[in-house]
Sequence to fold (380 residues):
Amino acid sequence: MQTHTHTLRSPATGTQRTLQSLHFGSDRQRPDDSANANTQKVYIQASLHADELPGMLVAHHLRGLLTALEASGALLGEVVLVPMANPIGLDQTLMYAQLGRFEMASGENFNRHYPDFANAIADAVAPQLSQDAAHNRQVIRAAMQEWLSQQPTPNELASLRNTLMRLAADADVVLDLHCDFEAVMHLYVETPYLDQAAPLAQALGARALLWAQNDSGALCFDESLSAVWWRLRARFPNHPIDLACLSSTVELRGQADVSHAQAQADAQAIVDFLIHRGVIAGHVTLPQPVCAPTPLAGSQTLHAPHAGVISYHAQAGDTLAVGDVVADIVCPATAQVTPVVAEVDGVLYARHVLRWATTGMDIGKIAGAKAFKTGPLLSA
Ligand SMILES: [Zn+2]
Fold:
């Protein structure tokens, strides 16, 4: 294992943060034909939302597993692990509460505003594309890195985003480890990659596999890296372009789910997936899937109709039918008690960690099978 330390742009006199990346396996000597499984690169980062801690604990256990696999010669490809992806957010504590989702300086979500690579590099790659998919993959990855190297990083957040992207941009597999408030294991993936994501969902025992294809241009980290391939494929239909980066946001249950046993099992599940992908030597039989993929546009977000105490009837992981009561919102001042009910059939895959609802607050999400939403599908 090699440890690299990346220095972020200083936000203020006397303050300079660093980011660590751990590098396992082969160096970046990627042969032209990366269809060879042995040459795959995997990028895994934990806690881009800095107050979502299960990823850090999984990364801790992954570090041990990968160190042993590397020593035994079983690691056939390269794994880059960023065990704490957001030193800015980790340092944002306000009256003992850690605020890791948004940067306090700008108000921006740490997991938004990543590059629309297809638009950024299309002109540069157009004259270089050939009828050889492996060649095209190399050309596109080189153009992504070149573009990133030329971007200004005018502030600390920009330098963090750019550093993470440069570590991940040429990976075949990207796992962005997050969690929800109180939740069961679930994954987000772009629609064209559902086939590649299915074994990951199986290995992790995901209770929901949510798919979407974002055309908004305001990209999450995972979408930025997977979207470039299907967008360029659509733009250059006469050239073979692979779906060369399976990138997924992995929601490792809820914020408080940080037991060693669970994190160890999750780390082993990721290793099993990498064995299945051919990045690690060995044989593995993955568990049967415990959910069918469902559209993100079919996910019902439950809202509190008025302020009050949230008294949940349903647990995260419960399978609900239309009309089932998820929670009561109780206003002690008016004695108003309003049930919030499921409007789709499916798994309640996440619910809030707070028990006081402000009017309109999101209090839970149900993975319905039928798409019914249009427009932006993720909150800010
Ligand atoms: Zn998150």
Notes: The chain has two domains: 2-291, 294-368.
